[in-house]
Amino acid sequence: MNPIRKKKLTTLSNALIFLGVLFLLLSFGPLIVQETWYFIRQLKGQQYSLTEKNDEKFSVFGELLSRQTIGIVPVNKSFSIVIEKIGVNAPIVANVSTTDENAYRDALKNGIAHAISSDYPTTAPSNVYLFAHASLNFWSLGKYAAVFNLLRKLNYKDPIHIFYDNQDFVYEVVNKEVVKGWDTNPIKRAVIEPLLTLQTCDPPGTTLNRYVVTAKLVKVQ
User: How many domains does the chain contain in total?
Assistant: First the structure.
């Protein structure tokens, strides 16, 4: 083979390999970072804790070295979600269509989406349905694309705080399941108590299935 042609082919091959590796890093980077960070915190016994005011300011490197509890101050108390176990602290965008892709893609750039057909937090029988991506292509979906990437880490009795109208609605996880992407039962099911439903993609970045966490209201404070 001509040495010049061979050199060009080698350069092209290396370029394709580099682009492939770069794409994988961009795609799976956020998920890998979150999984690694969660694993490290578990090893250290470090936790997040809801607080009214947090005067402690940690750098990423500081958090890595410290075993101290990391305080979470809710982003707002008008409508937001805090999940201490996985470090979620995000606003909730109200009344988002679950069928209009453009509408929910725009909403998910600003926070977790609240389904337009679901209820608001209340002590009456209800179903507050929130959804977000467990996404890989964060560069096209915005800041909150990866908020629910660690939703699978939640276990039974883990608390979830929904701040609404200056009240803290505290729910506890009671069920986890994977349903088909077309299954509408989680949002349309009949309820006899105040429930919270969190939904994300399964596997992350796909629309094949939905990973659904159900929690029940235990107190309002």
Answer: 1
